[in-house]
Amino acid sequence: MEYEKCNKCDEYFVITEHKLQMPGTKEREPIICPYCKEINYERVSNGWWNTRKLTEEEKEKITNSNQD
Ligand SMILES: [Zn+2]
Fold first, then answer.
1. Whole domain around residue 62: which residue ranges?
2. What angle do CA 18, 47, 63 make, to 5 degrees?
3. How far does the centroid of ligand 1 lie from the alpha carbon of residue 52, in Å?
4. What is the rounded CA–CA span in Å between residue 57 and residue 2?
5. Structure confidence by residue, pLDDT tens digits, 2-17
6. How far is ligand 1, taken at its centre, from the CA of residue 12, in Å?
7. For 17-30, how does the pLDDT look when each residue is reduced to its tens digit (9 = 90+)?
8. Could you give the number of structural domains in the chain?
9. For residue 47, how far is its CA from the centre of ligand 1 (angstroms)?
């Protein structure tokens, strides 16, 4: 599981890869902010990228770790 910070709205979100069982189909797929729907960037994937909002717990964890 990976976290990313949106370029536009500065919210953190979670990225997970949805992999398809087909070799050799790596393409650039967009990573879209679940808050403002902005395409942040594109990354190569076998399938596509799912993004979702953080739970309160995850948000807290990230905020704390960034203060170190
Ligand atoms: Zn955003």
1. 2-66
2. 45
3. 11
4. 15
5. 999 999 999 999 999 9
6. 8
7. 999 987 777 899 99
8. 1
9. 22
